[in-house]
TrEMBL record:
SUPFAM superfamilies per the UniProt record, alphabetical: MOP-like (SSF50331), P-loop containing nucleoside triphosphate hydrolases (SSF52540)
Domain ABC transporter: 4-241
Protein name in the entry: ABC transporter ATP-binding protein
Family, similarity comment: Belongs to the ABC transporter superfamily.
Organism: Paracoccus sediminis
UniProt xrefs under Pfam families: ABC_tran, OB_MalK
Key words of the record: ATP-binding, Cell membrane, Membrane, Nucleotide-binding, Transport
Keyword Membrane: yes
Any one GO molecular-function label of the UniProt entry: ATP binding
Gene Ontology CC entries for this record: ATP-binding cassette (ABC) transporter complex, substrate-binding subunit-containing
SMART domains: AAA
CDD domains cross-referenced by the UniProt entry: ABC_Carb_Solutes_like
Amino acid sequence: MARITLRNLAHSYLPTPQGDGDYALKELDHVWQDGGAYALLGASGCGKTTLLNIISGLLRPSHGRVLFGDRDVTDEPTAARNIAQVFQFPVVYDTMTVRENLAFPLRNRGRDAAYIKARVQQIAAIIGMESALDRKAQGLTADAKQKISLGRGMVREDVNAILFDEPLTVIDPHMKWGLRTQLKQLHREFGHTMIYVTHDQTEALTFADKVVVMHEGRVVQMGTPQDLFETPAHTFVGYFIGSPGMNFIDAQVAGDTATLPGGAQVGLGGHYAPLSGKIGIRPEHAALTGQGGLPVTIRRIEDVGRHRLIRAELQGVPLNIVAPEGQPVAGLDRVVFDPRRINVYADDWRVAPQEIA
């Protein structure tokens, strides 16, 4: 296992990049702790796989260094980095049995037969393939082959890190939750450094201790699921995390008040220097009311089981509100925000409230 340091790292696929826009991965400087479970989360094309391939050694960065512990591995090939990698599509040997596929990385490293047998049995139980151990991989379904691929990635206990590149894409949706839970359990048991690439926020938030959110080649926030939900560092994080995402409304902010374009005022839970930007409020922290607050126009109501999602407009701006199941909404045409839950943004970046002496 290893602490992974990414020092002044950046990458362009162009031979002579001229500016920031030419970089698929914009400069970052991070330390990922030994034994941590990290998820790289973002939309397609945001730089997740580029960063993962740099860590694995499949790609050499244009700038910066990669360290495993105190060892600089920037110029070392993948084989010298002592990692396991699981790709989006299964990589298995069709002519081997499931047992032989799982045992292959251990036999390659000369482990004794008793250890291999026990370890293969343990991993087969985790991926739910104990009954298929003696079946040939050829002819198995795509999701079964991907489970073998996952098992091969996890079978070694001595790796510096295990890297997962969207490993559940071909897995049946009903099996995804179980496999994510098992990966998390494996992490707790053996403490491997794990890095998991996905565009699915549910996968990221249920797997990782720390989620690394990427947008247009840049890391915009690294934090716990709670950090990302409560205090998004960038408007993209607020929009991308949550279902639906955070509401954003243009505002002039000064002191503890935000003034909206129509002149309505919203109280804030902190004190800010004057700025022109946006306020962000989660649908869960907005509530319909019959008096006070701000007038809204309700466009439709969606019942999603545990709560109702109110699709409304505030001064022509779309606004989502979550109403608990059973709470009456008929006749309610105003909205109030929890001031403690309002975030303030300027140029898309969160502005922290000022300390009051």
